[in-house]
Amino acid sequence: MMLRGMGFDNNTSIYLASGKIYQAERHLDPLLKMFPLLYTKESLATSDELAPFKGYSSRLAALDYTVCLFSEVFVTTQGGNFPHFLMGHRRFLFGGHAKTIQPDKRKLVILLQDMDISWKAFKNEMESMLSRVIGRDESPVKCGTCDAKAGKLLQLYRSCTDRFTSSPPWAIMDLHRIVSVIRQCGRLRAFRHGRSLHAHIIKLGVFNDVFFANNLLAMYVDISLLKDARRLFDETLERNVATWTTMISAYSSSGRPDTALKFYVQMLESKSETPNGFLYSAVLKACGLVGDLESGKLIHGRVFRANLGFDTVLMNTLLDMYVKCGSLSSARKVFDDILCPSSTSWNTMISGYGKEGLMEEAVNLFYQMPEPDTVSWNSIIAGFGCKESLGALRFVCMMHRKGLKLDGFTFSCALKTCGCFQLLVMVKQIHCYVNKSGFGSCCFTASALVDSYSNCNELDEAIKMFDEYSCCSASILDCLPLWNSMLSGYVVNEQNSAAINLVSQIHSLGARVDSYTFGSALKVCINLQNFRLGLQVQGLAVTSGYELDYVVGSILIDLYANDGKIKDALRLFHRLPEKDIVVWSSLISWYTKMGLNSLVFSLFRDMVNLDIEVDQFIISSVLKACSSLVGLGSGKQVHSFCVKSGYESERITVTSLIDLYAKCGEIEDGLALFYCTSERDTVCYTGIIMGCGQNGRAMEAVGFFQEMIELGLKPNEITFLGVLSACRHAGLVEEAWTIFKYMKTEYKMEPHIEHYYCIVELLSQAGCFKEAEELIAEMPFEPDQTIWNSLLGACGTHKKTELVNFIAERLLTTLPEDPSILVTLSNVYATLEMWDDSRKMREVIKKVDMKEAGKSWIQIKSSTHYKGLDHLISMPEMPKHHHIFGNQRDLERDVVLDYNVWSHVAFTLWGFQKTSFLWLSLLLYLMLRLIAASRSLILFSTLFANMDAFDGPGMKIYLINKKIESAGHCIDNLVFYSSSYVEPLHCAEFIWTVGGTEMESTSGAKDHIQLSSTLPGPYIARTCPG
């Protein structure tokens, strides 16, 4: 009550100097609730550190004495010699300016007897009482701050310097006093007085003394004046190990570990001093921060040769270095070599396993620990929290059952896990326990509660928690994590307006924000599609020095790319000094979304070359890009990387690989990968179902669907879409209709427009127009143009002229200038021999803007080129391009005239005529947009006889300037790509493989092969040698 009345809040750190307290837990509980940051020597020091003091009351008292001597404020609650000695020593050491509070117990008892007194009156009485005791009119809580002590320091400094000049300079008492003032300047960050003291020392001529220089250097480091410290270091003529250690530690602590390592190298080159354990600890810390494992190993060797393996502190630093560098095997060897591992050693090793996700090893090591402390429990709980596992809650419950004290970190980890799994009931239970334990007013616990309620979609409770902390806190701006949590809650729950208002409030109050605040504000701008507002937030980030922070930078890349400014996003990417996996992932995902697939693979190659760790999400994006390019070779390279990196068994990776092989026509490899996967979930089954459907293996797709149902896996909307698409390609009307009804009745899923499209197309292609029209009428939403287009195409095939006119009138009324509708109608009219109507559609098409034509591409030495014919033939990779057109004409003449080879095949697919040409070992990948704007991959692999190959080093490229018409679309400058040369063969027959069924045609056949409109691709033409 007295401390709170003096103005100390719950963020005050309090050290309790006392012996063993009778029934301490019960008596200290009220104090802990008001001041959670209450410490004793038992809580600050480990059991190993206290071992030499146990059993010696005088030694234990000396510990308390030392802490109290250098505390900012000393409050005594008793008389006796101990506090009197301490007060005298503090007055002498600090020139009579040490703040000591000795309350008047009689007045305090009278004041506390008034049970109806208000807090305001109580505080006024306390300030009035203590102002006479400590001799000041200000609040006692301020007596430990820099502002309260700065003015007194100068007086103390002057008294020291006066005595310093009037007595021998090397008097022990004067030396002690001047060094004490230097240290106090650093601890209180009183840089003006420190510089004045530095100047006076120079005038006295003792500046070159290494003892004074090292203390001045430490003072500048404590005040964070690295430039001044560096200038002092350069001017120091005499340096010892402590000098180098101070500078190395300073640069490591200030976020510049690379500079710290340069100082270490400079010291070794000077050969002036022999490193000791303290210096090695500072250097190893820098190695851990920068992730320099090789340098860390070299220093480890030096430590071993210097016989410093007995130093537990040094070995703990070495252990921490290996953990931070990700070398857990080396860390475990160091841990096993420590004779008597301290609790720090155990906790570092457990924490390292947890951060790497090796929870089995972490738990085993935890159970081997003799006496796990609170930090040990928190380490194992935090490890489970990183994996978003319920194991964190299990260990929290075990900790509670064992009667161990849960702190704010424990509560934060438990609440984070509850928020991830949306365990609202448990969040409320922990909230209640937090209030009972006195941590309800702790900033970080309050932030975790706001996060948890927000993730559980209980935004009102989160706002209530935020407001409660605002009321009980003296300055809520001191707790920025709470503001960030509330801002994140608004973003998660899509309350963008409230988020913008909160950002404005933070800015208007002048709060010092961090990268997390800017990141959340930028996410709001992305959600609102407000690029201009995002630029304003970026401007604030620039003025605050956070623009090039990797967290802010990754979201800025999202902001620019979301607005279509991919070049600006790439420019910002190259400006970032540090690029973590989030930054790389952000750019790769946007390249994938925007179809810049060749750049995706290029970025991935850069990541591998720079030895940047990739995750399964980046690999999934790269595999998707390879699928879009039909780049089987590049995809196999990524697959090999997955095997080496251990990502092959990840569900996301397996699904992406199956999709890759399916789109490249290598479904057998996809099936082999599927069967090798031990844990098959819904996502994995969905991938193989869609892959089988894309490769014309509809019955296998249906079989996999039935298999997952039997295994108890619940299909999702994408699973149903995949199996319905497979049935649509194969003409499986009954199977598709059964699955469609199963989706609505058994799983209570409302079909989307894509599901209806599959059934409508399937029914209409089978001639069931009545059923298709009834299904369209039953749709819970208005049918879009894809539904009508599918019905329209089938009408042309089945000669349904009246229905064509009805659909045409409906489409032209709603979308009179849609290019795809006009092209489809023109082709349908042509099929029905309604030439006048077809010609009218063509005239309208000429007047409207057509969509961008499709592109063809060619891959040469892992590079993808989208250029046209004129550019491709001038590429240096094609040294004999001048032969192309001459040889092209000869090839065409041979194909047409030589009837010993089946040279021309015409077939009908979806009611439209296509023409295929048979060439020498050519792999032609075409992405043709067919009716309903759906993409279909058609793979032609053929052999042609009696033809001379071009002379080329392992690569044959042919360009044919042909025009193929498909659904009204013209595709020019087709690119044919041959990766190898095959000896000429005389062909006796060709076999067309369509949907797994072989259709033969003898040599010289001129008959057309009519392919069923329901048979899917790919269509593979191969030869049988005669």
Automatic annotation (TrEMBL):
Keywords: Carbohydrate metabolism, Fucose metabolism, Glycosyltransferase, Membrane, Repeat, Transferase, Transmembrane, Transmembrane helix. InterPro entries: E_motif (IPR046848), GDP-Fuc_O-FucTrfase (IPR019378), PPR_At4g14850-like_plant (IPR046960), PPR_rpt (IPR002885), TPR-like_helical_dom_sf (IPR011990). GO terms for biological process: fucose metabolic process; RNA modification. The chain crosses the membrane at residues 917-938. The keyword Transmembrane applies. PPR repeats lie at residues 240-274, 342-376, 580-614, 681-715. Coiled coil: none annotated. One of its GO terms (molecular function) is glycosyltransferase activity. It comes from the Eukaryota. The keyword Glycoprotein does not apply. SUPFAM superfamilies: TPR-like. NCBIfam families: PPR. PANTHER family: OS03G0235200 PROTEIN, OS07G0578800 PROTEIN-RELATED. Belongs to the glycosyltransferase GT106 family. This is O-fucosyltransferase family protein.
